[in-house]
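Let us walk through a complete example step by step. Step one is to write down the protein sequence. Step two is to encode the small molecule, flavin-adenine dinucleotide, as a SMILES string so that its atoms and bonds are unambiguous. Step three, shown after the inputs, is the structure prediction itself.
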Amino acid sequence: MKVLVPIKRVIDAYVKVRVKSDQSGVETQNVKMSMNPFDEIAVEEAVRLKEAGKVSEILIVSIGDKSTQETIRTALALGGDRAIHVQSDDALEPLSVAKCLQAVIKNENPHLILMGKQAIDDDCNQTGQMLAALCDLPQATFASNIELNDSEATVTSEVDGGLLTVKVSLPAVVTTDLRLNEPRYVSLPNIMKAKRKPLEEVTIESLGVTLKQHQKVLKVTEPPKREAGIKVDGVDALLDKLRNEAKVIG
Amino acid sequence: MQNIDKVQALAQRLPELEIRTSQEYCQQYGKDWLRLYEPNPCAVAFVRSTQECAELVRVARELALPLVPSGGRTGLSGGATALHQELVVSCEKLNQIRDYNEIDEVVTCAAGTITANLQAFAREQGLFFPISLASDGSSQIGGNIATNAGGIRVLRYGLTRQYVAGLTVVTGTGEIVQLGRGLVKNACGYDLRQLFIGSEGTLGFITEAQIKLTRPPSATSVLLLAVNSIDAVMQTFCRYKKRLSLIAFEYFCDLALAKVTEDKQIKAPFEAASPYYVLIEFEHGSESDFELALSLFEESMDVGEVQDGIVSQSEQQANELWFYRESISEVLASYHPYKNDIAVKPSLVPELMQQLNLVIAEHYPLSEVVWFGHIGDGNCHLNILKPQTMSANEFKQNCDKASHLIFAQVQKLGGSISAEHGIGLLKRNYLQYGRTSYEIDCFGDIKRLFDPDNILNPGKLIG
Ligand SMILES: Cc1cc2nc3c(=O)[nH]c(=O)nc-3n(C[C@H](O)[C@H](O)[C@H](O)COP(=O)(O)OP(=O)(O)OC[C@H]3O[C@@H](n4cnc5c(N)ncnc54)[C@H](O)[C@@H]3O)c2cc1C
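Step three: the predicted structure of the complex.
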C-alpha cells in the first residue's frame, strides 16, 4: 500500500513571530523553521503503519522554495521512502495547494493520503477537505486513531464529549490531530541515509496545474499591546478604581 | 552588647532603613539554596540605594555588627547564610535597570536586578545577556557577580566576569568606589574590579553594575550523541570544537539518564544504552554548518566513538533534549547525594574520573556514582548516591572523609575544588586543596585591605 504524506515548512512553533515593518507579512529571515507539527504526526503515523507491515511505500510531497528540501530531508530521515518537491517561491492558498496535490495524486495513485489537519502558520484547516473534494475521495478528519486494512480505514476523532469513529473506503484522505501519536526524534544515521533517498523536483507548470489567486493579504498587524498593570495602595483605592475607572462595579 | 541591640542602635541612627526582625523574615532571608545549615540571623535589612548601603556599613562598622550581603539566595555554598546573629542585608529592593547606551551596548543596573529581567531587557534591545542558570528567575546580578556565575553557555560566552564593564561597590569601611567605569580599555594599573568579581560578599557590597551586552546567537540546534567511552567523549569534543561554534558541550553517564527516564516517566532517547551521552548545542549561521555537523557525526561513527545520535528538529525538541540533561540534579535530589562541583583542564577529565572512581570503589563499594556536567569546560558534577541501607548520618561521615581524598586527587591534577559555586561555608575548610598557602595569605591581606574590621560576611571563603 502506498501512502502519500504532504508536509509544510513553517515558522517554528516556539519562535516569537514578528510582523514586517511594511505590514506585508511576518518576518521569516533568519527565523527558525520546522516541519508543521501536525504534518510531523502524519509522517510518524505513516512510518508506524509501515513498521506494522501495513504500508509498503511512503511518499513525501512538499510545495515551497529551495529551503523546503531541508524539511523534506527530515521527513525522509523519519522514514519516508522518496519525495517530490513542487517548486514555488510564493505562499499558496489552500485551494492552490490542494490542486497541486491533486495533480501529484493523479500520477502516483496512493491508497491513502495522510496529512496534518492544519498548518500552524495560517491555521486554515482547509487543504485536506478541499483535496478530498477535488479528487472525489472520502475523507476522515482530525484523526486521533487510525486502523487500516487493505480496503478501508477506521478513523477515530475526538469530538465534544466523546469519540467519533468513521469508516472510509480507500483511497481516502485522512487528516491528523495532535493526539494521534508522539513523533520520534530524527536520528543522525537516518539523516545520512536520507541523503541517498530519491527526491524529485517538479514545477507547478509541469504538473499541468494553473493556479488562480483568490485572496490577497491587505496587511498584517500585531495584536494590540496590553497595558502594564499597576499596584494600588489598598482595598479602598482598588474599589475606587473599579468603580470610577474600570466602571465594573456600581 | 548583643547584635540585636546593635541593630536597634542602627535603626535609631538610620530611621529610613527598612529592618525586619520577625522569625519569618529571619528564616527566609537567613539561608541560601544549600539548606545545610540552620539559619540564625538577628534581623534583615533592605537597602534601596548605594548611599543608604554605605551609611549602613559605616554605622555597622562602628557598632562591630557583622553583615551578610544577600542576593537571590540561590547560592549553593552557603555564602549568603547567616549562622551567628549577623544582620542580613538584602539587595532585593535595589533593582532598577537604567541608563542603557546603544553605542556602548552597556546597561547600568542595580545589584538586586533579577538575572532573568536583565536577560529580558537585553532581548528587548535586540541583544543578549548570556549568563543563564537554572536559577536565573531568582538569582540577582549582584549575586552572579559576587560568585562569578557560569552556567550552560560558558563554553561560548564565558563567565559573568566577561560582561562586567564597571562596578559600584561599598567597601567594609563604607567607602563608595567606582571600579572599571564602563571603559573598554583602561591600562592604568591594577584592575580592582576583578577582585570583587567572585569575592562572595567578603570585600564589599556590589550595589550597581555596568553590564556589557552582546549579540544573540543565530539559529542553534541540539545534538544528543550516544558515546562509547569517556575518551571518546573528549575526542568528540575536540572534533566538534575545531569546526563549529559550540554553545554548550555537556555530558552525562548512563546511570544519570536511567534515573531521569525512570523518575520523569519519559522515553529513553536511544534504543540501545551507551556508557555516556553528550549534548551539543551549536550555532548554524548557514546551512553548511548543519551539513558540517552531520559530516562530523559521520566521522565519529566511522572511528567508533559514537554509536548513535539524534538532532533536534524544532525548538520544542531542543528543549526536550536539554530536559534529559537539566533534570539530572533535581532527580538525584531524592537520593540525598554527596555532591561535588569540580574542574580540571578538559584534557584531564578522563584521568580525574578514573582516579576518583577508584577512590570511590575502594571506600564506598555500595554507592552508585553519577557523573555529569559541563565537560567542555572541564567541569564535572560528581554525585555519590546514598545507599538505601546506610543511615544518613553514617553516609555523611563517610562523605566528609571522602572529601579529603577527592580533593587531594583534584589537587594532584591541578584542578579546582569548586568550579562554579564558590567556597562559602561549605568548602572553607578545604580551600588549601584549591589554593596554595601563598595565595591564601594574599586573600587574607586583600580582605583586610577592603574590610579591616571583618564585618562583611565573616567566616565565609576565608576563615
Ligand atoms: C537550580 C540551581 C542551578 C544553578 N546553576 C548554576 C550554574 O549553572 N552555574 C553557576 O555558576 N551557579 C549555579 N547556581 C548557583 C547560584 O544560582 C549562583 O551562584 C548565583 O550566581 C547566585 O546568585 P544569588 O543572587 O542567588 O546570590 P546569593 O545566593 O544570594 O549569594 C551568593 C554569594 O554572593 C554574595 N552576594 C550576593 N549579592 C551580593 C551583592 N550585591 N554584593 C556583594 N555580595 C553579594 C553573598 O553574600 C553570597 O556569598 C545554581 C543554583 C541553583 C539553585
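Step four is interpretation. Helices of chain A lie at 37-51, 68-78, 94-108, 127-135, 188-194, 235-244.
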